[in-house]
Amino acid sequence: MLRFLLTSSFVILFLIFTTPVLLVEWVIGKYNPDLKNRCAQAMVQWAFRGCSVLSGARVDVIGRENIPQEGAVLYVGNHSSYFDIVLTYLCFPRPTGYVAKAEMEKIPLLSAWMRNIHCLFLDRDNIKEGMKAILKGIEELKSGISICIFPEGTRNTSPDTILPFREGSFRMAEKAKCPIIPVSITNSSAIWEAHLPAMKKAHVIIEFGTPILPETLTREERKFLGAHTRKIIQTMYDNNKKKI
Predict the structure, then answer these.
(1) 95 neighbors 40 (Cβ within 8 angstroms)
(2) CA distance 146 to 119
(3) Residue 194 CA to its chain's centroid (Å)
(4) At what angle do helices 19-31 and 2-17 cross, to 10 degrees?
(5) Please, is 108 exposed, middle or buried when counting C-beta atoms within 10 Å of its C-beta (0-12, 13-18, 19+)?
(6) Cα(96)–Cα(48) distance, rounded to whole angstroms?
(7) What is the separation, in whole angstroms, between the first and last Cα of the chain?
(8) C-alpha dihedral (67, 205, 123, 104), degrees to nearest 10
(9) What is the pLDDT at residue 224?
């Protein structure tokens, strides 16, 4: 329980005391958007590193070399914990936003930082608004901002399998003509969700797979790009689960 109290207190204090930083970064963004993006990424990575340390997570990262050195990518991962965001963001070498559920936009301060790192808020119950989010994601990717999605659509409570992927978000990679990086996240729910509200030390494995280039796939693979990507992530997940 102490880990939970320390981590949650750290997050709350970060959100409160960095409020002036949001204003400074807004001003910087008016004159130097790239500097603003790098500053925002550094601040959030610092906060997430603190959360990771306080939670007691031990993280092994495999396949960093599969992340291209230049250009935006669409990261696609399985999702079982809020710590998936905390831990994966620490691995990203360049500014990256997440596709989050629309309800997150209503949370004061947190939503401001999410917008600052280019997160997209997706209303899955509103087709028109959902399409706007996807189009915005395409713009971000074309401008050099990577995007991370968890296409299971919800946090998965099953430790044995990955839920079917929703295909809609994969259009972003096809339209932006950017690589898809499969991301397998193993055992992240053992930090918190498996025994709420307590946080416990846990061994987490994050693996970045070989980039998928949609234009090089067969017609059938492109038609079911989500299922194709899910199969790759499931294989990595199964292999890494044996190491925990």
Answers:
(1) yes
(2) 10
(3) 20
(4) 50
(5) exposed
(6) 14
(7) 23
(8) -110
(9) 86
pLDDT (tens digit, 0 to 9) for every residue of the chain, 244 residues total? Answer: 788 899 999 999 999 999 999 999 999 999 999 999 999 999 999 999 999 999 999 999 999 999 998 899 999 999 999 999 999 999 999 999 999 988 888 899 999 999 999 999 988 777 777 788 889 999 999 999 999 999 998 887 777 789 999 888 898 998 999 999 999 999 999 999 888 888 999 999 999 999 999 888 888 778 889 999 999 999 999 999 988 8
**Tokens read off for 203:** 């061994």
**Residue that is written with structure tokens 């590193």 in the block:** 49
Q: 60, 84, 77: which is closest to 209 by C-alpha?
A: 77
Strand 74-77 and strand 146-149: the pairing is parallel
**pTM recorded for the entire structure:** 0.93
137, two tokens: 């994601």
Amino acid letter at 39? C
- Helix%, strand%, coil% for the chain, nearest 5: 55, 15, 30
Q: Three-class SS of residue 196? A: coil
Looking at the chain, list the stretches that DSSP marks H as alpha helix, in order from N- to C-terminal side. Answer: 2-17, 19-31, 33-55, 83-89, 110-116, 127-142, 171-176, 219-223, 225-241
Neighbours of 194 (CB within 10 A): 16
